[in-house]
Amino acid sequence: MTPARRAALAALRQTLDRGQDIQAAVDHLLRDLAPSERPLATELAYGTVRLLGRIQALLRLLLPRFHRLSLLTRRLLELAAYELLFLRVPAHATRSWATQGAKKLLGAKLAALVHASLRRLEAHADLAHDETAFLASAGSIWEWFSLPAWIWALWEQERGLDAARELAAMSLTPAPVGVRLRGQVPPDIAERLRPVARFGGQKGMALETWPQCLEAAEAQGLAVRMSLASQEAVLGLEPLSWPQPVWDACAGRGGKALLVHDLGKQVLASDPNAFRLRGLRNDCRRLGVDLPILQADARKPPLRIPPGTILVDAPCSGLGVLARRPDIRWKRTPDDVTVLARLQAEILDAAGRTLPPGGMLAYLTCTVSRQENEGQLDRLRAQHPQLRLRHCFMTPPEWGEVFFAALLERS
């Protein structure tokens, strides 16, 4: 087994069996790999997690005792199945490393099972790419889209079948790399960005990859990494009209706080998580930005004077960013949505009490759940009738991520 495949297998174990975020697991393991090995390790880890539901359905069909195998055996089979079915690697090469790896890790008997299973899977490879054949032979519509049944049911019930299919298909397409441009980018760099740009926005782009030509711009603070959908969610709420100061009450790493600051607004950022705030402080130093930062719980506003605008980028279930964070689909539960909705309600209630007359409340999530989105607005306005909804929208799935955004004003 090559170092890249060993790292990918370890990342699967860390993510699926021990609960670590896939980005953290992969980033940690990449440190020990040669640069030439890193792309394959990343593709194998993210791709297997992204398509795990479809892969498992096929393995259960062809290997009835699949669910009885040890976790290590199943992860090895899932990793090899992703490579066999979805990457341009010769089938004999995949079978070879998987069998040898199984022999070393699991013993000769299970190595023979792995080899036979992959041969059988190769013979039925068409099922992995033909939805009609898959549904007739292997599994359900949610397994085809590699989703837990509850997420598919939620989207179909709340958004309808066509929208559910669109959201599910989006979740299987690797998310683009977002860039926000902070200044006047040299014309030659702008020209070199066009071939790798999927979409363009008001301040940035969604790119296929992060090109070498942006390295210098990033080092100079002219370009920062930020998804296009998250940028457009903020910009669509007309931040130039927001009264000052703007309090970003759930700032996290502060991407949105820095965006609003770059628009010329006075911004205060806070978050309860010290680790995320350290990252924000580092970004502020790198970009030469003087941003007041507090460690505080948004449910207990730390400000003596009410802010003009409160930005609530709320903790949420993340169902709109499954393309970027595919492990979320296997970690979230319906109970998580309820718990997070309760937290969101507490944060919004605190914001509603804090906001002065004429003040604005910008509410953002990266999820597709009425309980966390439209339902929160209905509840908030019923409890705070002085809040008037000015604007509400969701970013389109074709951007690779879905953000919900709403702007309210207190009369």
Helix and strand run: HHHHHHHHHHHEHEEHEHEHEHEEHHEHEE
Which geometry do the CA atoms define? globular
What is the CATH homologous superfamily assignment of the largest domain? Vaccinia Virus protein VP39
Q: Biggest sheet, in brief?
A: 7 strands, mixed
| Uncertain regions spanning at least 5 consecutive residues | none
For this structure, the CATH topology of the largest domain is Rossmann fold
CATH class categorisation of the largest domain: Alpha Beta
CATH architecture of the largest domain, by name, is: 3-Layer(aba) Sandwich
Strands of the largest sheet, in order across it?
Answer: 7-6-5-8-9-11-10
Q: How many helices?
A: 19
Terminal-residue CA separation: 65 Å
Description:
The protein folds into two domains: 142 residues, N-utilizing Substance Protein B Homolog, Chain A, CATH 1.10.940.10; 184 residues, Vaccinia Virus protein VP39 (Rossmann fold), CATH 3.40.50.150. Strand 6, helix 16 and strand 7 form a beta-alpha-beta unit. It is globular. By secondary structure, it is α/β, with parallel strands linked by helices. Helix content is 50%, strand content 13%.
